Amino acid sequence: MSLFDRHTDDQILEIAKTAKPSGADKTVTDRALDYLAGRMLVHVRADLSIRYPSTQGVSTGQEMQPQALPLVERFIGETANVYDRGAKRRMVDGDGNETEATRRVTDELNRLADEMALDESLHMIDQVQSLVESCGGWAVVKRGVPQLRLAYPHEIHTVANDSPEFDANDQRDYRAYIIGLGKGGKTNRFAWVARGETAYYEANSADSPKKIDSNTPNPWSWPQVDDTGEERPDMPTSDLPVMPLVLWHRRPPMRAILPQADATIAHVAHELNLSWSALMDVFRMQSFSTLVLTGMQSDEAFQLHGARFPIKPGIEGGASYINSSVDYGQLVAVLVDYQRLCALALRMNPNDFSLDQKATMSGFAKLVDSLPKIEARHSRVRRLKRTEETGLWPVLGSILIWQNKIGEEAHEMRMVTDFPDLAFPLSPEEEAKKFETDFRYNLDTPAHVLARRRGISVGDAKKAIIENAEINEELGVVEGKIGAKPEPAAPVPLADNPPPQRRPGSNLGALIKGRGQRAKP
After folding, report:
1. Distance in angstroms (rounded) separating the CA atoms of residues 107 and 290
2. Average pLDDT for the chain
3. Which of 50, 149, 265, 408 is most buried, most CB within 10 Å of its CB?
């Protein structure tokens, strides 16, 4: 049975029994996603109760208070920044050239991408795959608008192909994917997503379907080769149903199409939050001490008492204070070094997670300091670019053609995605020197600089510069100083000089003085 053939309900019920879970741990993934969303306290509080049951198991007002540092948000914000400034997409023909026809499709595609919030959806996918290694983007149409529904790795089950050429690392070789949709009444709901159809059913698990609720044929097609093996240039293509699920990976898949979600940064952040919680409790103990009763046999001796709850020990007993002998500064230094070591291992700049507030560096110094992060970004951009151009575009293009929003000629076009480079702010001195060099060697013009700053055309920028020059000349601006004196004129021969004239108002003081001495009438 070909991958592009439609399956009947009975075939889906039979084949779905062979579905395999992705292997991603739901507990690990859920905790990582909660950390990304800022929901950390519930996980820290739960693990504090497991590690310190005698302290957290009673309500005395002296329990360890959970600490929550948003390290995952900071790390993902630094890492998944490819779509922060948006991506530029353009259409080209088979030879890679832009024509009048491709420009028309480009304009319509960019308009539709804004309408469906494509960059926002891809930014979320980039965040999740940077956190848990892999995720899926399921193309659906809701209320007439194409959307990318995010599918987490623990929600995806794979249905392998029985062909001898099946490759477990190639997402195109799988017969179908089963996506968990959460609870539907008393059981779970699942979606069978294949090239020929999309079906929905309820079951306790993905591999135990009982009844298909609905089975809708897939109307989206794209020129493809009807073969599960390696594509060859001499093999003819035809319009065939396209798989509406695209997988994104932080790194190329090895041994499994959806690897186990380790969520390294989430593990590190969780351990650091637990350590900071315990450390703050140690700091409280060092600062206020804790009263400990000795020599008492009464039940009161076994009660927990804190620094703010003194008691009377009685005649038969005594009391002493217990303090921690570990230096607080050493504990903080260990946690900070561990945090920076993790950042270094993840190809981040350790100074991004440093507690030391260093002086502001120049743009060039920041560039050198962030070279590992830039290299990691280039590697990630290369994978995102390839996934968009070869995986997302056939799905998105087939939907837009089916909706008559772009023409059939888009079948012969390719989408090219360009991502902006990572920008480092320059100091005023560095920026001025850069402009001076660009103007000297005719690499740029003031009009182009002003056009980029204000978002106007180059012609309008030229007019604004000319008007500014006239106004500055009228105000006497010389070398950037308002009201500067003009250069002195050439000296005139003495014979031609007119007799000195009294400066207007120079005798004002004498007139006032004389008026004051005038006799009254």
Report:
1. 70
2. 80
3. 265
Give the orientation angle of helix 458-475 with respect to helix 446-454, to 10 degrees.
110
Confidence (pLDDT) at 228? 52
Would you state the pLDDT for residue 367?
65
Q: What is the token pair recorded at 48?
A: 């504090």
Nearest to 27 by CA among 187, 154, 203: 154
H helices of 346-491, in order, are 363-369, 371-386, 393-402, 428-440, 446-454, 458-475
Residue 63 DSSP SS3: coil
pLDDT at res. 104:
92
Virtual torsion, Cα 112, 117, 120, 121, nearest 10 deg: -90
Phi and psi at 237, nearest 5°, equal -110, 155
Structural contact between residues 273 and 44, judged by C-beta atoms closer than 8 angstroms: yes
pTM of the predicted protein model: 0.72
Q: Rounded CA gap, 381 and 375, in Å?
A: 10
Q: Which helix (H) or strand (E) holds 282?
A: helix 264-288
pLDDT of residue 378: 85
Give how far Cα 445 sits from Cα of 200, 421, 449, 462, Å: 60, 21, 6, 10
Cα–Cα distance measured from residue 489 to residue 484, given in angstroms and rounded to the nearest whole number: 15
**CA–CA gap between residue 150 and residue 165 (Å, rounded):** 29
Whole-angstrom distance, CA of residue 205 vs CA of residue 13:
12
For residue 178, the surrounding DSSP H or E stretch is strand 176-184
- Which parts of the chain have pLDDT scores under 50? 229, 301-302, 304-308, 480-484, 495, 503-521
